[in-house]
Write a structure and sequence with these properties.
Helices cover 26% and strands 27% of the residues. The chain has 414 residues and is an alpha+beta fold. The protein folds into 3 domains: 28 residues; 288 residues, Alpha/Beta hydrolase fold, catalytic domain (Rossmann fold), CATH 3.40.50.1820; 85 residues, Immunoglobulin-like (Sandwich), CATH 2.60.40. Strand 13 and strand 14 form a beta hairpin.
Length: 414
């Protein structure tokens, strides 16, 4: 063999080996992580449990296999009380709890009383009062952020994969009920449930609306799981090798999925949220392809709070179309005078208050002091004068006649 032929053969071998290595490392794409059609066409096996009250019943349904073994999911199933008196089909909603949470009967009941079928599932292998014998308990940081392999399917044993699969199976369960309109199903989740809602929005394009409360993506760039927050060392991403972090982010960070979301979304958060800071949050809200509405209020408390009325109104306006939608606000524009900012807005409900929300602090977002000053409403334009010193973060916050807050995208200077 001549020297040139030898070099050619070696080059081909190197290319082949690199190709094989790439295929083995990237054996699954984020867009194909969960097969939506397979889930929705094959509803899980269901066992109905006890009635909790006239609106809510216990239900157990087939979960995703874990390490090759069958699993079971427990949930509360909410049913509108007047269902037997109606001929038309009902809307439905998936309810996703956060860390330290569970399947909440009162959450399902709340939506049932609002005229929706509701499914509030447990994502930590728990039943109504104790662990399920065939449940999977992975809902802790050490499991969520552990390293995993792709080529042997170990990624399917990760909590995020299992949780999204459980929610998709829950969606299929709802579709299988003859009283439910499959084209009127929405989802909302709180904290870690908001994180899952962001991923689900990219994975399940059959949902009509999605509302993540607090949760966002870009957790590896800034979040409670990176760094020292409030004296609590939580450096999960700092502990990862670059390869581990790349694997985790590519499959399980919402930033890898939200770009495929097409349904209308409402993002709900507070200025000082300790888990999902504003920089990561702002980047997350820019990803969906569909319409995005923001409701960021000053110092909104973080918890399993089911009573934010802007969530209810947003979902009703999209799914039922029976109420005025939340106002729409444009991005802020710095005016020619370099001293004022303005936005335009559209609203079927009257706007009763407009403010510039701002902070002049730097450092950890959760520790910053926020203030507001009045903004001027002139027709469909709202403007405000920037205070001195120039804020490090600011946005326009408006409230409509129903007391519902909606915000513009946040401008972050530092």
């Amino acid at each position: 063999m001549t020297k040139n032929k030898h070099r050619f053969v070696v080059s081909l071998l190197v290319i082949f080996l690199l190709f094989c290595f790439t295929i083995s490392v990237i054996a699954v794409e984020p867009a194909t992580l969960w097969n939506l059609d397979e889930y929705l066409k094959n509803p899980p096996k269901v066992t109905w449990g006890e009635k909790v009250n006239p609106f809510v019943q216990e239900v157990y349904y087939e979960g995703e296999p874990y390490q090759g073994q069958p699993t079971q999911i427990f949930a509360y199933f909410g049913t509108p009380k007047d269902k037997e008196y109606r001929n038309d089909k009902f809307p439905a909603i998936l309810l996703i709890h956060g860390g330290g949470g569970k399947a909440f009967a009162e959450w399902a009941e709340r939506w049932a009383k609002r005229g929706y079928f509701a499914l509030a599932m447990d994502l930590n292998g728990q039943g109504p009062d104790k662990p399920l014998p065939d449940g999977v308990s992975l809902f802790k940081d050490i499991e969520i952020f552990r390293d995993f392999t792709i080529e042997d399917g170990d990624y399917k044993n990760m909590w995020t994969y299992q949780a999204i699969a459980a929610i998709l199976r829950g969606h299929a369960l709802l579709i299988a009920q003859k009283e439910i309109d499959p084209d009127k199903i929405a989802v909302t989740g709180i904290s870690w449930g908001g994180y899952l809602t962001c991923i689900l929005a990219g994975a399940d394009n059959q949902l009509q609306a999605a509302v993540p409360v607090y949760g966002c993506g870009f957790l590896h760039e800034n979040s409670v799981w990176k760094g020292n927050w409030f004296g609590r060392l939580n450096n999960w991403f700092e502990k990862m090798t670059p390869e581990h972090q790349n694997r985790w982010v590519s499959l399980f960070d919402p930033s890898s999925h939200l770009g495929r979301a097409t349904m209308p979304m409402l993002f709900v958060n507070g200025t000082n949220d300790g888990a999902y800071p504003l920089d990561s949050y702002r980047k997350t809200c820019q990803l969906p392809k569909g319409d995005v509405t923001l409701s960021v209020t000053l110092r909104r408390p973080h918890g399993h709070i089911f009573t934010f009325n802007e969530v209810d109104t947003f979902i009703d306006s999209i799914v039922l179309k029976n109420t005025k939608p939340l106002p729409k606000i444009s991005a802020m524009k710095l005016n020619d005078d370099k001293k004022t900012v303005s936005v335009t807005f559209e609203s079927e409900a009257a706007i009763t208050k407009a403010e510039l929300a701002f902070t002049t602090n730097t450092g950890i977002y959760a520790n910053r002091e926020w203030k507001t000053i009045p903004a001027k409403i002139n027709g469909k334009t709202i403007s405000a004068e920037l205070p001195t010193p120039v804020p490090t973060c600011y946005y326009i916050l408006i409230t409509d006649e129903r007391g519902l807050p909606v915000s513009s995208p946040i401008n972050i200077l530092q």
